[in-house]
Amino acid sequence: MPRPARFPAPSRALVATLVLLALFTAGCTSDPEILVNRTLDAREEAMAKLDVDKYVSLFHPDYQYAEGETETVASATRKRFAKYTTIILRTTDRRIILEHNGKIARVIQDYEMQAHLKNGKVLKLSGQDHFLLKRKSNLFGLLGTEYLFYQGVGV
């Protein structure tokens, strides 16, 4: 009776290459819902770190300014973030509605936020965010909001 063929054990380099390839492809997705979640999660992270550049990078080039809004997103964000020492944001119940074959997303999410001002005051806010996002290459960009940052709280 013939012996079964023996296959050599795979080399460590081959195994490492396959593991890296699997990790790389896991990070690359075209699923619009996953991309929307990544964008909004990155927004939360940028707010927590008070990272103006990261926050501004999440806006789509076609961002629609509110009527009468004259400041750029970068300028307005820089001024707002300069007032804080810490922002703690928790979002829940994110609902994503995809339109135009996944190129546009409408998002409603609940949030609770504590914004610690440099003057020692703490703002406690809760409510709903309403976002409109548009696909831009491997992410979605914020296209418009029902007032993105404060929703009626003047600081």
Strand content: 25-35%
Number of domains: 1
* CATH architectural grouping: Roll
Show unreliable segments. Answer: 22-26, 147-155
How many distinct beta strands? 4
- Name the helicity range: 25-40%
If strands are numbered along the chain, what order do they take across the biggest sheet?
1-2-3-4
CATH topology: Nuclear Transport Factor 2, Chain: A
Distance between the termini: 85 Å
- Overall shape: it is elongated
Estimated radius of gyration: 22 Å
Class derived from helix and strand content: alpha+beta
Describe the structure.
It is a single chain. This protein has one domain: Nuclear Transport Factor 2, Chain: A, CATH 3.10.450. It has a 4-stranded antiparallel sheet with strand order 1-2-3-4. A hairpin with a 4-residue loop joins strand 1 (84-99) and strand 2. The protein is built from 4 helices and 4 strands. It starts with 11 loop residues before the first helix and ends in a 10-residue tail after the last strand. The chain is elongated, with a radius of gyration of 22 Å. The chain is of the alpha+beta class.
Give the key terms.
single chain; 155 residues; alpha+beta; Nuclear Transport Factor 2, Chain: A; four-stranded antiparallel sheet; 4 helices; 4 strands; 32% helix; disordered C terminus
In short:
The protein is an alpha+beta fold and 155 residues long.
Give the arrangement of secondary structure elements:
Elements: H1 12-27, H2 32-49, H3 52-57, H4 73-81, E1 84-99, E2 104-117, E3 122-136, E4 139-145
Antiparallel strand pairs: 1-2, 2-3, 3-4
